[in-house]
Amino acid sequence: MEEAQKAYEESDNAATRAGAEHKAAKTALDEAQKAYDEADKAADQADAALKTAKENAKNQPKKEDKENKQNNKDNKEKADKQTKVDNKDNKEKTDKQAKVDNKDNKDKKSKADKQNKKNQTNTNKSKVAKAEAPNTGDNSNVAMFAGLLALSAGVVATFGVYKKRKMSDRN
After folding, report:
1. Cα 122–chain centre separation
2. Total-model pTM
């Protein structure tokens, strides 16, 4: 009789623990649902704001009139004339400078070629390919869902053990 009493008390304790775990799991599930609802509401608000912004952008009138077009045309003509004059002056200066620079560049080129070969060898050795995970846009909390899964599995296992013990106590 004492063994039956002990078994009954253990069974009762297990049921109490299982009830508490079930309550904790339900609370966690309710909190997750609340967070999901809030995120869904925020997404709806963002969609509405985007729609309003697009409508406002479509309704903005284009502000170009004849006076602005004429001013732009006049300014372009003046700029073209000045550019022609500047180009002629710059060409003369550039031709003279190019003759001087060609001589200097030949000497510098051979030195630069040697240095580039050294740098290219060093650069090739130092490059390392880095793999980066692609951004999927999924920012959900995996640890929370894993915890809920483990908690739910524990509740189911506890109820299974409780039911099995209860059935074996009857026999």
Report:
1. 34
2. 0.30
Residue 129 has pLDDT above 50, yes or no: no
Give the end-to-end CA distance of the chain in Å, rounded to a whole number. Answer: 14
Q: If you average pLDDT over residues 113-125, what whole number do you get?
A: 62
Which token pair is 78?
Answer: 């003046």
The verdict on residue 49 lying in a domain is: no
Neighbour count for residue 18 (Cβ, 10 Å) = 19
Specify burial of residue 155 (Cβ count, 10 A radius: 0-12, 13-18, 19+). Answer: buried
Residue pair 162/15 in contact by the 8 Å Cβ criterion? yes
Domain count, the chain: 1
Q: Read off the pLDDT of residues 15-72 as tens digits, 9 standing for 90 and up.
A: 787 777 888 888 888 888 888 888 888 888 888 888 888 887 776 655 555 666 777 7
- CA distances to 23, 64, 72, 120, 169 from 154, rounded to whole Å, are 13, 71, 76, 60, 22
How high is the pLDDT of residue 61? 55
Write the CB contacts of 21 (distance below 8 Å, at least 6 apart in sequence): 151, 154, 155, 158
73 located within any domain = yes
**Residue 30 domain flag:** yes
Domain that holds residue 119: 2-41+68-123+141-170
Quick check: is 72 in a domain? yes
